[in-house]
Amino acid sequence: MLDLPVIQDRDSAPAATGIEHTGAGRKLYVETYGCQMNLNDSEIVQAIMNEEGYAHTTTPDDADVILLNTCAIRDNAERRIRERLKHLRYYKKRKSSLVVGILGCMAERLRQRLLDQEQLVDLVVGPDEYRRVPALVADAAGGGKGIAVQLSRVETYDDIVPLRTEGISAWVSVMRGCDKFCTFCVVPWTRGRERSRALTSVVEEAGRLWDDGFKELTLLGQNVNSYKDEASAADFPDLLAACAAAVPGMRIRYTTSHPYDMSDKLIETMAAYDNICKYIHLPVQSGSDRILGLMNRKYSVEHYLERMAKIKELMPGCALSTDIITGFPTETEEDHRMTMELMAQVRYDGAFMFKYSPRERTRAWKMGDDVPDEIKTRRLNEVIAQQQEIAAEINQQAIGSTEVALVEGPSKRNPAEWQGRSDTNKVVIFPHNEQSDYVVGDTIRVRIERSTSATLFGEVVAA
Ligand code: 5AD
Ligand code: SF4
Fold first, then answer.
1. Considering the chain, what is the average pLDDT of its residues?
2. Domain with 434 in it: what CATH number?
3. In this structure, what are the phi and psi dihedrals at residue 331, rounded to the nearest 5 degrees?
4. Residue 324 phi, psi (nearest 5)
5. What is the pLDDT of residue 4?
6. Domain check: are 63 and 115 in the same one?
7. Is the N end or the C end of the chain the one with fewer CB atoms within 10 Å?
8. 223 lines ligand 2 (CB under 6 A)
9. Cβ of 352 less than 6 Å from ligand 2
10. Single pTM value for the model
11. How far is CA 293 from the centre of its chain?
12. Residue 18 scores a pLDDT above 60
C-alpha cells in the first residue's frame, strides 16, 4: 500500500513573500548524529538540496540553513540535540534569516512537540519525508513552520545519488525500517516498516562507486537479513554475492544482522568471497534467556552460540562485535553474570555497550524501569572493563603478524602517522613521511609491533 506523504503546515508561509523554492546561492550545513544509516540519509538530503541549488558548507558559521539529523535510540542522544540547539541560538542571533531544521528519528518521535518546545526550530522532518525538505525550508525562510513526518511503506530514495563529499568508504542503504519490534527499541516507530531497494539498483550503485574511486562500501540496513528483492526474490546473501562479484576490487562490509536469521547461506557467502570483509557485528543484547525473551529477541543463548561456532568454523579469522544493554527491566545480578559469561566465552573483538534507556511507546516502557541507575552504571562498567581486557588480549596476539590495511589518511592524533583499517575492521596506525610511497585508498601490508584494546600499531612492509 502506498502511503502518500502528507505535510501538515503550521503557520504556513504567506503566498506573496517573494521567496523562490530554490536555494540558489544559499548555504546548507548538515550535522549528523547516531547511526551510519543517518550518515547516509544526510548525504541523501544534501543531494536533494543540491538539486535545488543549495551549496554545501562544512561549518555553521556561514550557513543559511542548518539541519540536524538526529537519533532517538536513547534519551542521552536526544539530550545532546537539545544542548546543541541551545548553542545554535547564537547563529540565529547573528543571522535572523537562518533556518534551523530537525530531521531523523527524534523528529519522527516528537513531531509537533519539537516545534512547540524548541522556538529555534523551523521545520521537523521524519526519515521518509526528505523529498519535502526543500519546500519546507523555502516556507520557513518566509516565516512559516513546517512538519512532515508521514512514514512510508515504499520510500527507499532509490533514485537519489547520495552527495558523498569525501573519503574512500561509502555507505549504501539497501533496506529501511524494522519489523522486529524488540521491546526496548524505538526504531520501528521512528523508521517504520521494512522495505528493500531493488538488487539491480544496489549493484549499479556499487559499480558507480568503484568507477568514482571508492574502495570500500558498507551495505546498510536496520536488519539486513530481512532484505528481499521483489523482482527476483533474491535475499541478503544473494545481494552480497552480487555486489562482491560486480566489484571484485572493492571491500564490502554490511551492518546490521540479527542473530535470529544469521543463516548458513550468509556465512557461506561471506566465506566464499575474498572481498567481503571478515567482520560481523551481531548484537546479542544479553546473555540471559529470560531477558532475551522479555526483549522479544526471538533467539536463545544456545542458538546464538551455535551461530558463533558456525562463523568460527567457516571463517576462523573473522572478527566479531556486539551490542549489550545493561539494566533492562527486571535484570538481576544472575542475568548480568550470564551476560559477562557469554561475552567471556565469545571473546568479541569489540562491543558497543549501553545502559537501558526507557523509550515511550515501546513494550519495555510499560515494564517499568526498575533497575536503579547506579546498578545499571556499575554493570555497564563491569562489562566495559571485561571487554577491554579481552580486546587487548586479542590485539596482543596480532603482534608479529602482518595485516592488510586500506589506507584512510593521517591519524587523528599524530600527523607523523597515518591510519588504515584492516579487513577485520581494526584501526591500524603506521608511520608516514615524505618517502612513504602509499596514498589514500591503497592497500598496504603492515607488520604489527604493538597494540591496545582499540588499535594496532606497526611498520609498513613491502607487498
Ligand atoms: N536503551 C539502551 N540501548 C538501546 N539500544 C536500542 N534501544 C535501546 C534502549 N532503549 C541499543 C541496542 C541496539 C543498539 C543500536 O542500541 O543494543 O542494538
Ligand atoms: Fe531495534 Fe530490534 Fe529492529 Fe534492531 S532489530 S532496529 S534493536 S527493533
1. 93
2. 2.40.50.140
3. -60, 125
4. -130, 140
5. 29
6. yes
7. N
8. yes
9. no
10. 0.93
11. 26
12. no
Q: What's the residue count for the chain?
A: 463
Model pLDDT for residues 321-339, shown as the tens digit of each residue: 999 999 999 999 999 999 9
Q: Ligand 2: which of 71, 184, 185, 324 to mutate, most ligand atoms within 8 Å of CB?
A: 185
**Pair (300, 233) in one structural domain:** no
Structure confidence by residue, pLDDT tens digits, 367-390: 999 999 999 999 999 999 999 999
Pick 342 or 22 by higher pLDDT. 342
Q: Are residues 368 and 418 in the same domain?
A: no
CA atoms within 13 A on the CB side of 119: 4
Burial class (CB in 10 A: 0-12, 13-18, 19+), 162: buried
Residue 316 has pLDDT above 90, yes or no: yes
292 and 380 in a single domain? The answer is yes
Domain extent for 46: 7-152
Neighbours of 68 (CB within 10 A): 23
Per-residue pLDDT, 462: 81
In ligand 2, which atom is closest to the CA atom of 222? 6
Which CATH number belongs to the domain containing residue 171 in this structure?
A: 3.30.750.210
- For the domain that residue 82 is a member of, what is the CATH number? 3.40.50.12160
Q: How many domains does the chain have?
A: 4
> Which ligand ends up closest to the CA of 190?
2
The answer on 230 and 366 residing in a single domain is no
